[in-house]
Amino acid sequence: MDYMSQKLVFVINSGSSSLKFSLIDSKNYKKCLTGIIECLNLLNTNVSWKSKDVCIKNFYLKSYMNHEEAIRFILTEIIQKKMNVVNDIVSIGHRVVHGGEKMKSSAIINKMIIDNIKELFCFSPLHNPVNLLGIESAIKQFPSLRRKNVAVFDTSFYQKLPECTYLYGIPYIFYKKYGIRRYGAHGISHSYIMKKSAEIMRKDLKSINIISCHLGNGASVSVIKNGVCLDTSMGLTPLEGLIMGTRSGDIDPSIIFYLYEKVKMSIKEIKNLLNKKSGILGLSENTSDFRNSEKKYFFNKKAKRTVDIFVYRLVKYISSYFFLIAKKIDALVFTGGIGQNSVLVRELAVLKLSSLGFKLSKKFNNENGLKNNFRISTEKSIPILVISTDEELEIANETVRLIK
Ligand code: ADP
Q1: How far is the CA of 272 from the centre of ligand 1 (A)?
Q2: What is the CATH number of the domain that holds 329?
Q3: Do 363 and 173 form a contact (C-beta atoms < 8 A)?
Q4: In the chain, what is the greatest distance between 2 CA atoms, to the nearest angstrom?
Q5: What sign does the CA torsion over 304, 310, 314, 316 have?
Q6: pLDDT in tens, 280-291
Q7: Are residues 119 and 262 in the same domain?
Q8: Atom of ligand 1 nearest to the CA of 292
Q9: Burial group, residue 324, by CB count within 10 angstroms (0-12, 13-18, 19+)
């Protein structure tokens, strides 16, 4: 393939069973390559990717491919053989979910950063270990770019949360001694949404006020005042807050004691229940895929219950955050797989929020805002936007900023 010589950022978003990757031009931020390797460490590891000339869907690679093999495959088979742009890569950006209190912003990766990421395994057991695997594999595969790897933390966006939103109502010593506090997650996405909303609303970043709803497999709501996040629904870990694909979101902690003492479940089993078997999956007694419940909403009791509970919790968060920005609000924004695509969720949620000044345009909502400059609200309503999130772009931006 013939690609113009350029300076490219390789972005890696490494999850437990999937690895998303892209190559982004560091000058104009155009994407030359996007892709995902799915079912890592499982049967049927497969790859999908898209570049200027090629679009491959679910191509079987092998079974039980690990993170290192995945990065080697992307490097040799796609970037080298198919695109021939290996020498154009100048930096690598990594998503890291938990940066704790020490990682206040994105950072060039060195031993200290790696040690800090490891220290936070306890607060993000599902994410930080695999984020680190991605980092270590990339360093091995690209030894000449060793000092050009950047970690972009989801938690950085929440560094300015006020004490009253990040502290739990437990003895203060547990915060001081063990760092138990609310850290938030999905910060990279909410940060992108904030910037894009400012652009759409033609506002300065320093004066943008929005409520941003990232509704995907993981889901969270953040409220942003004058370009600073004041509160967010995820807490010490991404388990708190909204109902999610397989996560329970908020529960009374006494449920844990009950399950342990009366039902005789082990702590490991309870952890698994709340993280992997609850949420949409647990309520629907079918699947974590939201589309399934949405499709059956009008004729299946379980599906209706699932969607209604999801929407109720969402509305509860949006309305409780509304008072923080009230009349200054510039927009309510939906993003993530459900936020961007579910006409039903937006319709049910906004209907419940009508007394606050939100009103949907049925037509624009049905079109996911695609034909009306992102807007799905009526003229008289507080603006409601649907924006497709782009965490990769946000990571590339941060990587270029730091490597410069
Ligand atoms: P992740 O957190 O894994 O990045 P996504 O943002 O891709 O998740 O969102 C995945 C969720 O979005 C799934 O529950 C999926 O069912 C849901 N989703 C995708 N498309 C639609 C759609 N057209 N209508 C409703 N839900 C959808």
Answers
A1: 22
A2: 3.30.420.40
A3: no
A4: 65
A5: positive
A6: 999 999 999 999
A7: no
A8: 16
A9: middle
